[in-house]
Amino acid sequence: MNIENKLPPHLLEFSQRIPAFVWDLIITVIAILVGLIIKFIVTNLFKYYAKRETSYSFFRSVLVNLGPATTYFIPLFLLNLFVPFMRMDKEYTIPLDKTIEILLTISFAGILVRSIRILEDYVYHTYDLNKVDNLKERKIRTQIQFMRKLLVAVIIFVTIAIILLSFESMRKIGTGLLTGVGIGGIIVGFAAQTSLGNLLAGFQIAFTQPIRIDDVLVVEGEWGRVEEITLTYVVLKIWDERRLILPINYFIQKPFQNWTRTSADILGTVFLYMDHTIPIDEIRNEFERLIVKTPLWDKRVKVVQVTDVKEHTIEIRVLMSSRTSSEAFDLRCYIRENLITYIQRNYPGSLPKTRNDIGNLEKYIMPKATGSDQPA
User: Fold this and answer.
1) Which residue, 91, 104, 203, is CA-closest to 147?
2) If we measure between CA atoms, which residue out of 140, 125, 147, 266 comes closest to residue 213?
3) pLDDT per residue over 40-84, tens digit each?
4) Quick one: 232 and 289 in the same domain?
5) Residue 231 to residues 109, 196, 247, 252, 263: CA-CA distances in angstroms?
6) CA dist., res. 106 & res. 159, Å (int)
7) Which residue, of 104, 177, 213, 221, has the fewest CB within 10 Å?
8) Comparing 114 with 360, which gets the higher pLDDT?
9) Together in a domain, 201 and 229
């Protein structure tokens, strides 16, 4: 390559005194070193500002997410600028330019992907889920998580398309394929029907939001929280740490229970089956004494009612309210355990029992022997 118009006279004279290979190696090393020095300076500036912030730090988020991506992008960018100063033959320069261009495209796509992550970190900090009433936060997080996955998929697709279209042979193939796009589109449409259905279901869920991140659901008989929503499936974290993976269009086509659709508030019930002799007023008084002592109760609902009378037992329903389903479960266990203990200690005779009526038992007993039947 002719570099006479690209270098100052003294550098041009110096470059001509040394072999072309050595000169090109020097240019490459300088470009990489300058890029790494710039990256080092920028990184340390962000570290300095990140240390000054105690909780969430925008600079720390940039440092964590963009650090690896810029490590490759800045040296490649400077090397691309320095390529015209090399004395390499044209047959080697063209492949080198193409390689650097592809690597730059990939590293820039990486920067875009990680930049989306920075935005997500900011939204996660602004809309914190660690609240009792976090309905708005769950709405925003569901949408931002879905949009991040969608944008990442688009960036990857566009990056691959740009790399392929940078080759002349690929552009010719693409032009030839346009003639069969009608038939090809129909074939691809049938082949990708399920995937497209999942993608459209993902859009519908992200914006109509029948489910959100951290929602409490009962699906397929399992109780759990929505841990992740992707473009194609939903991860439900079951109460015992298992994960239930469901296709995203499941939540469009099938019924399920959402315990936190509009609010996390929930009612909990405890059923007691006691003998008919149990004093209901005493049970009611003990329940009210117990529930006011615990912070699990949200002070909305507390009711004791006899909801059914059966042959051997009566059904007592204890109804109470709580802020979340997890607290409601703990509250139910607390009330159930203490009421059973109270009844065992104070009214053990009112525990469920089976009765046998023996009032007419004498008619089934053999009459006593009299007269000659008595033994001698």
Assistant:
1) 203
2) 140
3) 887 777 676 666 665 666 777 777 777 777 777 888 888 877 777
4) no
5) 20, 10, 9, 14, 26
6) 7
7) 221
8) 114
9) yes
* 268-298 tens-digit pLDDT: 999 999 999 999 999 999 999 999 999 999 9
Cβ burial 44-53 (10 Å sphere, 16+ → b, else e): eebeeebeee
Asked if residue 332 belongs to a domain, the reply is: yes
- For residue 157, give the nearest of 97, 113, 201, 103 by alpha carbon: 113
The overall pTM is greater than 0.90: no
| The last residue of a domain, from among 126, 141, 175 | 126
171, two tokens = 């552009």
CB under 8 Å to 351, separation ≥6 — which residues? 274, 275, 343, 344
Residue with tokens 């029992």: 353
147 and 228 Cβ atoms separated by less than 8 Å: no
Q: In terms of residue numbers, what domain contains 282?
A: 266-350
DSSP code, position 361: G
Residues comprising the chain, all counted: 376
pLDDT of residue 279: 93
- Of residues 227 and 14, the one with the higher pLDDT is 227
Mean confidence (pLDDT) of the chain: 78
CATH number at residue 344: 3.30.70.100
Domain count within the chain: 3
Q: Which tens digits make up the pLDDT trace of 235-261? A: 999 988 899 999 888 888 889 998 888
Record the tokens describing residue 230, joined without a space. 């992707």
> Strand pairing partners for 308?
315
Task: Enter the tokens of residue 307.
Answer: 């909801």
| Judgement on whether residues 252 and 303 belong to the same structural domain of the protein | no
Task: For residue 308, give the 3-state DSSP assignment.
Answer: strand
